[in-house]
Every structure is written in structure tokens, then in C-alpha cells.
Amino acid sequence: MRTLRVGPVSTRVDVASVVCSLVAWLLTLAVGALSLTLGDYRIPLPLVLETLSGHGTLILNDIVVNGRLPRVLVGIGVGTAFAVSGAIFQRLARNPLVSPDLIGVNAGAALAAVLMITVLGSGWIPAGALLGSLLSAIVVYLLAYRDGISGYRLVLVGIGVTAIISSVTAYLLTLADIYAAKSAVQWLAGSLAGRTWTHVVLIGAALVVLLPAALAGARQLRLLELGDDLARTLAGRVELSRGLLILVGVALAALATAAAGPIAFVALVAPQLARRLVAERVAGLLAAGALGALLVVVSDLVAREIFAPTQLPVGIVTAFLGAPYLLILMARANRIGRGG
Amino acid sequence: MRLRAAGLLLCVAVLAVSVLLSLSIGNQHFGAHDVYLALADFSGSDNDRVIRYLRVPRTAAGLLAGAALGLAGALMQGVTRNPLADPGILGVNAGAALAVVGAIGVLGVHSLTGYVWFAMGGALVATVVVYLVGAIGRGGATPVKLALAGAAISALLGSVTSAITLLDLSTLNEFRFWVVGSLTLATGPVIGQAVPFIAVGIVLALVLGRSLNQLALGDELARSLGTRVMLVRVMAGLAVVVLAGTATAIAGPIGFLGLAVPHVARTLVGADYRWILPWSMVLAPVVLLLADVVGRLVARPSELQVGIITAVIGAPVFIALVRRRRMAAL
Amino acid sequence: MLRKSVLPVLLLGLLAGCGTPTADNPPGSTITVKNCGIDVTVAGPPKRVFAAYQPAIEMAHALGISDRLVGTAYLDAEVLPEYAGAQAKAKYYKNLPSREELLAANPDFVLSGFNDVFSAGGGSDESFGSRKSLAELGVQTWIFSPLCPTADGKGDEAIDPASVTMDNVYADLRGLGKLFGVEDRAETVIADQEKRIAAVEAKVKNAPRPTVAILRPGLEGGGLTVSGGPDFGTVLIKQAGGVNAFADLTAKRNVKIGVEELIKRNPDYILISGCCDAALTPASTQPDVDKLLANPAFQNLKAVRNKHVVPWLFANHSAGVRGAYTTEDIAKTIHPDLFK
């Protein structure tokens, strides 16, 4: 019965998903354009456009093309990546609270980044953060593996590993001088400040490679959603696609964290919003990605302007926006008890 | 029974040895005789001063915070029937931390005496929120739900904490040393002020042993045995907040001690909370003091804060628990 | 691509527009001075200088280029009395500006007393960007040589201890004198510094050498932060006829130690290094001095028993034109009978 309904449902949803994504993308672009005009150096929109077309002064060019534009683009990229990663994890674990934030991916990246900022004082942070997040993800996965992977065990082991890593991170912060410590705390909160075209290339390349993989996996994901019992006929392939999806999800979160630090709650909130807007039971990866981008770009604008000229890291704002939603979500997430 | 009592006495003896080690080992090592002289016949020499004004306070802090965290962990595990309960996991520390940062950064409180109340208030609010959120829905406050709620709320509180510290550099500078968890934060007078709080918490906790045993049978059965389930929960919650809050105020958020030690106690004495509680109370300071002694030796001329050591020892216990138990049992 | 081709043209235009050629610098000729391994090239004396941190601000005033300051940022304490008048007229930023804010001031030269403003530091919004990236905009930069990092973009952790000398301060004065066309003034300043320091050195030549610790105020997590070997304080204490009690700790400028370590080393003098407010005076750190004096654990310290715990300033032990002043100041403290 159910399988029969999958076809029509998915078609209908795809339309809604596309519309939702489009609207979110348009809003993202509008906010992005606004972001290009605001800052410590006020530049009206016509001048921004002039600069973008290559006719600005050297300084305008530096501020708009080398400063604000990559910042907005990195924001869009990491927002998309976090949200898609979150959507994948939430699908796999069938648990709205399972997000890469909680399973150790971010903690490893954070430790590596803080190590580089405070102790080594050198190196390209995204590279170290990427390495750190992959390592910690592998450790969590191995520790949680026991005749297969259970979503809950993954999360709980993630919490444990995160705790150890965070305490070492906190220790490193006490070793650093206060300015390095501040810069590290800023990174830890998730920040788009000072992001360059290299970061854009990093997250862009990640999306180009991983997004299609995630979308292809989404079909499999829908099969998985029917439950392992029904999909048992495809047993081997289910395990395989589950593994690949975890890999894609971890890679997206790791690369996004490498580019912008662990921006809180985007991976958790954006897919949930997408679900509410689009439909209850369908992945809606694109919609989630679009909403993630919008969330980050809006939050960064707020973060830059609210205490100007002092800037907050974007992650603080996403946390403030995401927190109430999270509480409502947890209160409503009775399903979490299912099997746990 | 007799064995467990004898064991407890043995634990107390081990604790006494740990105290002696904590007083004598450090940047400079002292013999037992030096320690005795410094305490009994204070001459004002360098050694006497180091022992009396540096080692004694941090040892006292270790004793108090250790006992408090061991009890708080055992209580939380008992009252939630949750083997993963710990003040760190369940967001209590994050609540205390945020309150302390708010006190430093927003209200300008700079003495540890001032922090205590904020730490306890923050611990209380976080505990209540985590429990309420975790208890909603089918199955009540299951371990997984509580752990998730704790992690999520810790993340949320952590963000607010970061925001405050980033806006004010001097707050960050105070906070970053506090948040690691260390026995050298509190001075003598502050530790003195903590004593009554911890004492009340200890009495409250030890009285609850029998009730926790009945609670372990499930709410229904406990009720039929005449236990006032709600009252026990509230009392235990109160004790946890006072113990964990005060411990956090004097030593910062020290993680995993409250998780690991009651499990060790349970392995040694069985499931009877009348024994788990006192054993946890004695064993936790042993671990904390020894961890602190290790911390003094590994990074000279600086020191490694005790919170790092307990996390490195305690978190593997947590992971082992998660792995060992079937999810259904959690 | 476009930016690259347009750059040289714009750069020339900018320099031609701003740099008014002086007599000994005929149009078209440029002056190049090496600073921390980077060629600093100007076509005529810079006209719009941004000075970041106390040592840079004081050096700018000492060189008599106060009227060319378009901005000064982040004082650690009150400036020396001889510069107070000039500083009162300068535009002051309480916090370091962001790159955008800096560029909005339209400087052609950035003089920094510390190295961290040019370090990437995890993409902190308080970084001006690397020196190379500023040079591309026609903004020349200078870091105080005793704090040269080993590579552009690096910070405090990359100081070469051999460069921590008063001679390097003189080299900076000469280099800047040449760039700014104030060589005579620079030589006057150097001569004055040399004369005053030599006078102190002569006086303390045969005196016993007490040990001096420079301590940050406050117990940080139960530990203390002291100035180690690479700190400029080591040089200044030596000139004043003392020995830095922690000179053997050479890993960093600021070193964390346990409280018991201070008791073990038992320095003769303790200078409390208060910091970071434009209105700060030594008296501001008196409360920290009192706290230290009252701590029962420290009662046997020679410095405590003899009341040789001195309220002092972080600004005093930064490399720069305070060198002579601080040498005299420390000498008066630790050799009171020689300086009656």
C-alpha cells in the first residue's frame, strides 16, 4: 500500500520543494546584496554594482570583492552544506536532534583550529579543521560501532568524545595569550569574519562534489525511510548507501566547519524548517540547503550590525535564533523515545 | 553488609592517603613530617606557607568538590534511573557556567563568593529545563532523551556564554581559566563558605538512599511501597543543585567525575543506594585529589588543571557504558 | 584577473596623487627600507599614517609626525607626558578597527607596535590583513623589529629571540626616519635614548644585580602569567642593572607558571604589569599590588617582605621609545640608593 503512494507523493513534494527552495534562494540573494552595502565602510548599492563590474577604486574593490563578497558566498555555501548534512543525519537516525554538531564532527575541528591558533600559530586553519573533524568522526564511528551502528549510540558516543575534546580545547585556551584566546573563541563560535576566496573555493568545491552525491543518496534515503524491514530485500545496498550517506554528511559538515567554524544549530534547524514547510516525511534536501543558506546569511548580517563596530561571530546569532526552535522541537519530539 | 562497611573504611583510609599526597606533592615535594609541622607547628617558613596557604585550600577544595560531585552524580543516576546522568552531561555545568559569566561580565561580580549563588541558580534553572524537556513524551525522562536534552541545552547555553565573553575581553580572561575546572580557583575563606552548603547537600543525599532503592523498582512499585515519589524527586533535585552548584562555584565545571565514580561504586557494592551514595562520596574526592596531583607534575613549571584530567579519565567510562548497554536497557 | 592588470596603474596613480615630492626626493624616485624581511617602498614621505598600539603611537609622536596621523588605536596606558599634547589632538580608536574601518580612514602607512594586527589569526575581524594585501592597496606597513615574526601573517609565537634588542628599536627609528624624511629627528631620538641608557648602565655597573619578575595582575585560574625571556622587559631589566627572574623560560613572551614556582624563584622585585586602557596609570594597578602583598602564601617572598611589589605598566616593557624611560624607571626602583 505504502509503496504505491511513494511515487505521487514524491512528485508533489518535489514541486513544493522546488518552490520553497526558489523563494529561499531569492531571499538569500537579496540579503546577500544588502550585506555587500553595509559595514564599517558604507558603500551604496550603485557603487557596489560598479565595483562588482570592475570599475571600482582599489579600496572599494578590496572591501567589496575581496572582503564582503567572499564572506557572503562562504555564508551561503556553509549554510547549504550544514543544512544538507543535518538533513542527511536526521533522516538516517530518524531523530530530529541528531545533527553533526552533536556527534563529534565539530569538536575535532574545534580542537585542531584552536591548536593552530593558540599553540602552533600557523598553518591554514581550514586544512587542520578538516583533518580534526574527520579524525574525530572516525573515532566516534569506530567507538559507536558494535554489530552495526545505532543512531542513539552514535549520538551518545559523540557526546562523550565531544566532552573529552572540548576539555582539551578549553585547556589550550588557558595557555594562549588573551588575544589569541579571543580569536580562538571567535572561531569556536562559528564566524565568517575575514573569509577569503580560498574559503569560497573550498566550500564551493565541496558542494559541487557532495551535493549531487547527497541528492542521489536521497532516493535511497526514501527507501530507507520505509524501514529496514521493508528494505531488507535490498539489504546489502541499504547498508552501503547508508554508509555512503553518512560519509557525505560528515564530509559536508566537516568542510563547512573547516571554512567557517562550527556554526551552531543550522544543521539542526534548517532541515526541520524545510520539513515543516515542505512535507512531513520527505527529505527535501534542496529546500533544507536553501533555508540553511538563508539562515546563515541573515544571521551574519545581524551579527555584523547589531553591536557595530564590534562584530559578533555569526554562530552566536544562529544559536539565538535556533535555540527557541530547538526547545520547541525537543518538547515536541516525542518520537525520540521510540526505541530509546 | 560487614564487608561493604569494612570496604568503606578502607576507602576512607585511601582518601586519607590521597589527602596526604595532595599536601606533600607538587612543585616542591614535602615529607609527611614537613606536612605535619606545617599544620601543627606553623613556623612561617616558605614550606609551611606553601603547605598551609596553597596546598591546604586546594586539598580542601578537592575534598568538598569531589564529595559533592560524587554524590550529585549518584543521586542523578538514582532519581532518573539513568546510568548516563552526570552534571556535565545533563547541562547543569553549562547552566552554572553561563550564570557565572553573566555575573562577571554583565553584573560585574568578581569574587568567588559572589559566583556561588549565581552558579547554583544557573545549575537549578538548567537542571529543571533539561529535566522538563527530557521528560516530555513517551517513556518519561529516558536516558537518551535526557542526554540529548542536556547536550542540546549545553550547546545553547554555551553560545550565549561565548557571546558575553567575546564582547568583553576581561570576562573572557577570567572565564577561560574558570571553565576548565581547577582546584586552585578558590581561596580559604570561599571554601569555608562552601562547607555549610555541601554539608546540607550531603545530609539530604544520604537520607535519600532508601527511597532511591525503592525508586529503582519503578514509580508504580515505589508508590505501592509507600514512597512519595514526587517528594523524593524534588528533594534529590534540590540536593543535586546545591551539591553540583557549590562544587562548580569552587572548582569550575568538572566533568565526568559524577558520572564515573558512582558506576565504580555500583560495581563494587551492588545496586543498593544506601551504599552507593557513601562510597561515591568517599571515592570521588580520592579520584579528584589524585588527578590534581598528577596535574601538578606533568606540565611544570605550569600546572594542568584537574578538569582536563578528570575528563580524560571519565569520558572513556561514559563511552564504555554507552557501548556496553543495549539501547533498550538505556 | 582584472584586478591584477589594473593594480600597478592604480597604484602609481594613488602614489602620484598623495605623495608630494620633497626636495631630496625628486618625482619618480622611491625609497625602500627593509622591515621584518619585507621591502617597504614609498615615493615620498607617507602623509596619512595609522598607528596601532602604544609603542607605535609613541614612536610616531617621537618622530614628530603627529600631524600625519589619521588614526591611533588601542593604548595600553597613558602616553608619556611629552606626547600627551600631541595625542590629545589625534583621532583615537578604543578598539582596533576592522580592515574596513582602517581603510575607511584612507591611510597610506600603517605602523604597528605589535605583530598580531597583520596576522590572519583565524580570520578575526580585528586583523588588518597581511602586510602584502595592504601593500597591494598602496598601504605600506611597519612592524616593530624586536617583534618581527618569521613570516608575513604570523604573530607572537614566531618571534626570533635574537631580534629582541634596543638596537632593533634604533634600526626602526632610522628606517622610519628615512621613509618619513625625518632622519635628523630620528638620530636625535636615538642619541637621547642611547645617552640616557648609557648613563644608567654606567651607574649600575658595579652594583649587585637583583632579580626582577614582571607579573600580570591577578591570579589566572590559580596560576600566574610572567614575562619570559623573549619579552622586551628582559632587555630593559638588564639595562637597569637587574635580571629577569624568568629569563630562562624562552618559549613565549608571556609564560604561565604555577604559584609555587614564584615562591621557589623568590624574586627581589615584582613589577605588576597593568594593561589596556588609554587612561591607565601605574596607580591603577595598586589594588593588585595590595592583593599580592596580603596573600598569606607570599609573606616570605623577599619582594613582599621588603614591599618591593611595584604598581607598573604593560606599556613600560613594550619595545619602543619608552626604552630609555623604562630603563631609568626600573633602575630607580631596584637601585634606589644610586638614584637619589
UniProtKB/TrEMBL annotation, chain A:
It is a multi-pass membrane protein. The chain crosses the membrane at residues 12-35, 72-90, 102-120, 127-145, 151-176, 197-218, 244-270, 282-302, 314-331. GO terms for molecular function: transmembrane transporter activity. GO terms for cellular component: plasma membrane. It comes from the Bacteria. One of its GO terms (biological process) is siderophore-iron import into cell. It holds the Pfam family FecCD. The keyword Lipoprotein does not apply. The keyword Transit peptide does not apply. PANTHER family: FERRIC ENTEROBACTIN TRANSPORT SYSTEM PERMEASE PROTEIN, FERRIC ENTEROBACTIN TRANSPORT SYSTEM PERMEASE PROTEIN FEPG. Belongs to the binding-protein-dependent transport system permease family. FecCD subfamily. This is Iron ABC transporter permease. It comes from Kribbella antibiotica.
From TrEMBL, chain B:
The keyword Membrane applies. It is found in: Cell membrane. One of its GO terms (biological process) is siderophore-iron import into cell. Keywords: Cell membrane, Membrane, Transmembrane, Transmembrane helix, Transport. Belongs to the binding-protein-dependent transport system permease family. FecCD subfamily. The keyword Membrane applies. It comes from Kribbella antibiotica. It is a multi-pass membrane protein. This is Iron ABC transporter permease. GO terms for cellular component: plasma membrane. The chain crosses the membrane at residues 56-76, 88-109, 115-134, 146-167, 187-209, 230-256, 276-294, 306-323. It comes from the Bacteria. GO terms for molecular function: transmembrane transporter activity.
From TrEMBL, chain C:
Keywords: Signal. Residues 1-23 form the signal peptide. It comes from the Bacteria. PROSITE patterns: FE_B12_PBP, PROKAR_LIPOPROTEIN. Residues 48-340 form the Fe/B12 periplasmic-binding domain. Pfam families: Peripla_BP_2. Belongs to the bacterial solute-binding protein 8 family. This is ABC transporter substrate-binding protein.
